[in-house]
Structures are given as C-alpha cells and as structure tokens.
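Repro:
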Amino acid sequence: MTADTPGLLLADCPTPLGVMLLAATREVLVGAWFEGQAHFGGNWDLSRAERRDSSLLHLAQAWIAAYFAGESPGENTMPPLAPRGTPFQLAVWNLLRTIPYGSTTTYGSLSSALRRSGIRACPQAVGGAVGRNPLCLFIPCHRVLGSDGSLTGYAAGTARKKQLLAKYDKLG
C-alpha cells in the first residue's frame, strides 16, 4: 500500500553515481533514491507527485552536491528529514544518522545498540530495515558493513556502496 501524496514534490539530482530522485513535501524531505535501486519510491505513489522547484529540494540538491564534492556536509546544512516507516525501521534509521562521516559500523553493532535501548533486534532484521531506508545518503545506510567488514548488500548496488565509502566518505 502506498502513502497519500498530497503536495509531494519531485526533483532529479544528477550525481557522479547516477541520477537520484528527491521527494519532499513543502516542509520535509521524505525520499532520496538512486534510479533503479531496490525499494525505489518507498511507500509513496510517485505517479501522483509534481515535478516542481522548491527551496527544500534546492537545499537537498546542494547538500548532495557538497557530499560529492568531497565535503562533509553536516546536520546544519541538511534539509529536515521525515522518513516513513514502522517504529522499528525508524529506530534503525535514527541510529544510522549517528554514524559519522568517514566511519562505518556493522549490522551486529546496530543490533546491539538497539537491544541496549530496549528494542529487540537481530542483525538480519536490522539489515532489512537498513535496506528500506528511503533517504539514501542523508541517512547513511551505505556506512553499514557485514561483521567481517564485507560490503554485503546495498539497495542502490554494492558497486555504488564501494564508491561511496572509498571515494566520497574517504575510507578507501
């Protein structure tokens, strides 16, 4: 089932790794997906959205441009985010936002952190939530690795994940 789309605005954002589609309401960014990635569009009916300029979408595009320029864009330049998901997914996505630029973590570490906060979670469930992150780059799901340091899956493709970590997060 898809979420209602009243006032949902869309904009393309070219990047060195392919075009991203950005989705926003007038107040918050709700989606950022690479074309062709798994779970593209999340739970939004994008066919009913409008392609129109907005200051929020311009702010999101500027943040992405800074990231791909090799800067460490931070919270102070990030548009307000409002991902839609289950309470468990939201808990995982909030944890992802704490992974610093230039750092990585593992699904197991995220699972342990959730358990310490009283949320039952196994690494596989965390992986499922990470894979459904609707705000690629803004919520840095590409910074999560397997327990052995392997890239494992990435909704936008492991080749992109490798480039994001090595070239743009400068972990290579």
